[in-house]
Design brief:
Elements: H1 4-36, E1 40-43, E2 46-49, H2 60-79
Antiparallel strand pairs: 1-2
Length: about 100
Amino acid sequence: METKFEKYAVLNSRIKELTEEKDELKAEIVEDMVERGEKNVKTSIGKFSIVRLKTWTYTERVAELEEDYKAQKAKEESTGDATFVEKPSLRFVQIKI
């Protein structure tokens, strides 16, 4: 009988494999739809749509502000001004096969 630990490990592995397979299919579908000039495809299982997502590139000033923000967070963590709450979480490191 499979233990809950073994079941978790198997599910974790399957999720990773399925996610990779899904991402590959997604890229193929997007490429096919773009090549055909299709924005929407209706199927018996649902509707697939090409949408436009913005990818932002910021100025050096924003990068500097981000570094300042990170530095301020680290300072407050080290001085105790920032607070935290600890809660149990599971970390799983799969053995290499």
